[in-house]
Amino acid sequence: MEERKPDAHLDLRGVICPINFVKTKLKLEEMNAGEILEIVIDSGEPMANVPRSIKEEGHKIVQVDRVDNHFRLLIEKS
Amino acid sequence: MKDKTMDIKYDHHLDEQTRLKVEVELAKGKKEVFNLDQLKSGGYIRQRQKDLFTVRLRCPGGRVPFEKLKKIAEAGSKYSRSDYIHISVRQSIEIPYVNYKDFSPLAEELAEVGQKIASCGPRVRVPTACSGCEYNPNGLVDVQKLCQEIDQKYFGIQCNHKFKISLSGCPIDCFRTNEMDLGFQGAIEPRWDEEKCIGCRICGYACREGAITNDPETGKPSIDRTSCLYCADCIRACPTNSWEEGRKGLVVRVGGRHGRHPVHGSPIAVLLPEEKMGPVVEKVIEWYNEKGKGRGRIRIGDILREQWSDFLAFIQPTLGEYAVRDPEKPQHITIHSFQTGWTPEYSVIEE
């Protein structure tokens, strides 16, 4: 599957819960439906919480990649 | 605002009053003679003050419509000598400081909006429940609906002692089903569809029980069913719906209680379908009433501790495939560890 080019980026490494999700949410609010937001979050607690919250807000996680001890998520705004 | 309670004094000669029989009008035109302690069974609880009672209202699942709440506030402030209501630990609204002569008009005004009085004493009490899955993000099962069903069908059934039922929507178990004579807790079994899985590993991070391990190469999950709590965290976190809802049902716990010597109830079934809840309630009460004959005020947990295998054999056909294999019997929890001379055997002699 060809990777979709992100329309915006957020580096949330070192940003704790729930601030990481709040920043993601605010960024998504600025974007248009269908656009792609790329975020990088730490493994552990952020990975346990942020994807679930994004899904609960109705957005779609279209890709997840592991980069060292972090995860890169591509989110499609609903 | 004037604090009404400033006028209230204790009465130190109450013992004498409890032996007296008085004529009480519980409903309009229906006068009966009661010993004042007996009124407890109707939800009228005697206070330390002469002639005054706390009136406990029936609020199943702690859900009180605004319309009823308004009427409770209106009638309560009219008939109570206090300026507040008390919210009981089991979600019921209680109107304190009501004179027994006012029972009938109070009950009548509350009945205008369908608000009923609760009960106390040796019977099935008003069931309690969390908000369930209707709007609580953690909720897995509609326990509010099930709670109303229990209230409608089983509230007030006579037993040897109090019989408390509660329901929790998820394994966080806010409604402490292990502390109830009978408890139901929501559970969802996760099912994995390999086709949809993109190997993202989110489920492994989302699982707080260590039940999901992701393959180091492909990221695909494997689940250890013996560690799964049926909380559905993996299902909620999965971005591709590869984890999806499998069987949905109830964990059933029996024999618990709080009080001076709490007993930890035992899980006897897992993922029991909702439609089997009613039959389980009926069977458990049937066994309790049968075994409790002639034994006075004894909780089901104490009888279960004596006759556990008899109970399991009795309930097994109702639980069917959902029964927990060889469950442990209910156990006492020590909360007064300084009381080294006490043994559980004493708890049986309650009469």
CATH superfamily of the largest domain in chain B: Sulfite Reductase Hemoprotein, domain 1
Number of domains of chain A: 1
The whole-angstrom Rg of chain A is 11 Å
Count of helical segments of chain A?
2
Rounded mean pLDDT of chain B is 91
Strand content of chain A: 25-35%
DSSP helix fraction of chain A:
25-40%
Question: Could you say what the CATH topology of chain A is called?
Answer: Translation Initiation Factor IF3
Name of the CATH architecture of chain A: 2-Layer Sandwich
What is the CATH fold-level name of the largest domain in chain B?
Sulfite Reductase Hemoprotein, domain 1
Q: Largest contact between protein chains?
A: A-B, 15 and 15 residues
Q: Considering DSSP H and I runs of 4 or more, what fraction of the residues of chain B is helical? A: 10-25%
**Segments of chain A where pLDDT lies below 50 for 5+ residues?**
none
Number of helices of chain B: 9
Global Rg of chain B: 24 Å
Tell me the number of strands of chain B. Answer: 15
Count of discrete structural domains of chain B:
3
The CATH architecture classification of the largest domain in chain B is 2-Layer Sandwich
Query: Biggest sheet of chain A: strands side by side, in what order?
Result: 1-2-4-3
Binned strand content of chain B: 15-25%
